[in-house]
Amino acid sequence: MKIKIVNATILDVENSKVLEKYTVCIEDSTITFVGENDNLFSQAFVADRIIDFEDDILCAGFVNAHAHNAMSLFRGLKDDVELQQWLYENMFVIEKYLQPDDVFYGTQLGLLESIKSGITTNLDAYFFPKSIVDANIKLGTRCVCALGATLYEDRYKSLKEEYISLPHNNDLVSYMAYAHSIYTIDTKGLEDTVFIAKEFNLPMHIHVSETLGEIGDCVGKYNKTPVQLLQNIGFFEHKCLIAHSVYIDKDDYDILNQHNVSVAHCPASNMKLGSGIAPIYSMLQANINVCLGTDGAASNNSLDMFREMYLASLLQKVNLHQTDIMSAPFMLQMATLNGAKALNLQDKIGEVKVGYKADLIRISTKDVNMIPINDYYSNVVYSAKPENVKMTMVNGQILYENGKFADFIDVEKIVFECNKAIKRLKNESKI
Ligand SMILES: [Zn+2]
Predict the structure, then answer these.
(1) What is the pLDDT of residue 46?
(2) How far, in Å, from the CA of 43 to the mean position of ligand 1?
(3) Which residue would you say has higher pLDDT here, 40 or 329?
(4) Do the strands 240-244 and 262-265 form a parallel or antiparallel pair, or are they unpaired?
(5) pLDDT tens across 111-139, in order?
(6) Distance of CA 59 to the CA centre of its chain
(7) How many Å lie between the centroid of ligand 1 and the Cα of residue 231?
(8) For a pLDDT cut of 90, what percent of the chain falls above it?
(9) Of 94, 252, 276, 430, which has the maximum CB count within 10 A?
(10) Is pLDDT above 90 for 431?
C-alpha cells in the first residue's frame, strides 16, 4: 500500500521545528519521503491513497513507556487509596483470578483507548504475555512486551520457556525482561531476571522507588536504596528502563547516568496514588533520559498521553516554582523521541523521518479547543485532548480515522468480552 499525505504541518520534535505544507510518502510500513509539497519526488509518487491533511498537525505517534493495558478491566475498581493498599488488598487479589482471555480482551480495551489518543507504541508489563502479544498483533499496534509479571517458583526456567514460546518474527513486537519491583520479587528472582536478559540480550524493566515506604523498607533490609540494590544485582548492566523513580537522590542519578538507564515518568498515577512528585527536571539536568507512561488505567484512570504531557510539565513548574522549564516542545519530545530511546526503538520510531516506521498521528487544527494556533506545540501539549486525534497509523496501517476504527477491529466484541470478564472476576475474587 502506498499512501501520500499532503498539506501536513509536521512537528519535528528533534529540532523543535514546525514544517508547514509538507508531504509524507509511505510505502507499506515505512516512510519513504518527507519534504515540501512542491517536490518533484512526491509529485511523481503514485499513491494508492492521497490524504489531504488540510494543514492539520502530523507528528510521530506517542510512545507509552509504562503501561499495563489489561488493567483497563479494573478502571474505577478501587480509587482514593495509596499504593500498598491498592496493590495488596485489591489488585493482587483480583489478579489471581485472571485468565489468558481476560488479558487478551483487556489489553485490546486498553489499546482501543490508546489508539484513539494517539499512542502507537506501548511497553506493556502484565500477566500472560502471549495474550498481550496476540492482542497487539490483532489490532496492529506496536508493543514492547515485558516478560516476568508472574511470580514463578523457578523464575529462570519459566521465563526462558515463556520467551522461547513467543512470536519472534513480527515487526510490531519486541521484548524486555521484567521484574515487578524489589518488594514483590526476592533477590534471587531479580538475579534470575538478569540472567534471562543476559542470555537473550533483552533490555530490562522494573518499578523503582515509587513510594517512601519502598525506600524505607529497602534501606532497612539491605542498607541500600532500591537503585543501589539493583545496581549490585546487575540490573543496569543491560539497557534498562525504570518506572516512577519518585524518590531518588543525586547518588542514584549518578548510577542511572553511568549505566544509561532511562526513567518512565507516570505523573497521573503518582498523583492519584498519592506517591509524590518525581524529580524529573533534576534527572533531566543530570542527563538522564526521561520519557512518559500512563501506568495502568486502574490507577490513572485513563490512557491519555495529552494528559500525561500536561501534568508532567505543570507538576515540575508548581513544585519548583519555576515556569521556564518543561516547555511544550520538550514535553512532546518526551512523549515520542525519549520514549523510543528508552525502548531501544530510536532507529525505528519516535520521529517523522525517511526510513522510519510510519507510526504517525493527525491532530486537528480546526477543533475549537485548538483555535487559534499561535503556537502549534503549545496547543498540542496544553490544549489538545484525545478527541482532537483524527487519525492514528501504525506501521503504515491506518487503525483509526475520523472517529472510526478500521473495519478489522471488532470494538463491540472487545467491549462485550471485557464486561463479561470483569463481572466474573469480581464474583470470583469478592472484590
Ligand atoms: Zn506500573
Answers:
(1) 94
(2) 46
(3) 329
(4) parallel
(5) 999 999 999 999 999 999 999 999 999 99
(6) 16
(7) 20
(8) 97
(9) 252
(10) no
Rounded to an integer, what distance in angstroms lies between the CA atom of residue 164 and that of residue 171?
17
Give dist(CA 36, CA 202) in Å, integer. 39
19 CA to centre of ligand 1 in angstroms: 36
CA-wise closest residue to 118 among 339, 375, 371, 270:
339
Distance of CA 400 to the CA centre of its chain: 18
How far, in Å, from the CA of 67 to the mean position of ligand 1?
Answer: 6
Question: For ligand 1, a single-atom ion, which residues have Cβ within 5 Å?
Answer: 295
Q: How far is the CA of 430 from the centre of ligand 1 (A)?
A: 23
The region, left, alpha or beta by phi > 0 then psi within -120 to 50, assigned to residue 15 is alpha
pLDDT at residue 38, as a whole number: 87
Alpha-carbon separation of residue 161 from 165, 193, 203, 287 (angstroms): 6, 13, 18, 37
CB 10 within 8 A of CB 58: yes
Distances (CA, A) of 412 to 103, 385, 417: 17, 24, 9
The answer, yes or no, to whether residue 367 has pLDDT greater than 90, is yes
Residues 235, 255: contact at Cβ < 8 Å?
A: no
Q: How far is CA 277 from the centre of its chain?
A: 19
What domains can be seen in the chain, in order of their start residue?
A: 2-60+356-404 (2.30.40.10), 62-342 (3.20.20.140)
pTM value is 0.97
